[in-house]
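Cross-check.
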Amino acid sequence: MSPFKTVALSSLTILLTACGQSSSSTDTVESLAANPERLKELRQQCKTDRAKLGDDLCNRVAEATNKRFFGDGRVPYTPPKEPPKF
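Predicted model, tokenized:
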């Protein structure tokens, strides 16, 4: 292999390693819903600097917030046995 190809291959390897996935791309809705501290941190950052974080991440943050608030949706609605008296 020529020295030029070796240098080019090494440079490409270093470049790809440096451009690895950031932590924001690993934040899924499920992982954010399971980690309330990270969710709170990202919610605040989305409020103050949404352009920097991006719409995709902030949308996942909003969906995780809804998931934590509403739950998984498996609990059926059970109305009271007696209607309320006004």
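Residues 15-21 have pLDDT under 50 and may be disordered. The CA atoms of residues 41 and 84 lie 40 Å apart. Passed to J.P. for a second look.
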